[in-house]
Write a structure and sequence with these properties.
By secondary structure, this protein is mainly alpha-helical. The chain contains 5 helices and no strands.
């Protein structure tokens, strides 16, 4: 996928930045709970929910804008990333008010988050 110039290119670049901020919030929220996870006291913090939601909104917008700008979009890659993100978002949303989350479930969210990052970076 190439990023164009002009107003559409600027908008796409801004959305990529917001998408990265979303993944930073999701992963950062996870990482802040690692010690608690080891003690069985981890919880899904608000940053994780907001980060995942930001990723979903900006990701969908990026796909649409890139297609509208004539850029090629790998729909299989996007589909896999979307599926992982929906699982992450669903788990975090449903368990967001729980005082503690089972460490296996919490670890799964971290694993899926990291997998999503590596899919984005390595799948060309």
């Amino acid at each position: 996928m190439r990023l164009g110039s002009g107003p559409m290119g600027v908008l796409i670049h801004l959305l990529v930045g917001l998408h990265i901020i979303g993944i930073a919030a999701l992963l950062g929220g996870f990482l802040t709970q690692m010690k608690a996870m080891g003690q069985g006291a981890a919880r899904f913090v608000p940053a994780m929910l907001h980060g995942a939601a930001t990723m979903l909104v900006t990701g969908v917008a990026l796909v649409g804008l890139n297609q509208a700008d004539g850029n090629t979009v790998n729909t299989v890659k996007i589909g896999v990333k979307l599926a992982l993100l929906i699982v992450i978002l669903g788990l975090v949303y449903v368990k967001r008010d729980d005082e503690t989350v089972d460490k296996r479930l919490f670890g799964l969210v971290g694993l899926l988050t990291v997998a999503n990052i590596f899919i984005a970076v390595l799948w060309t």
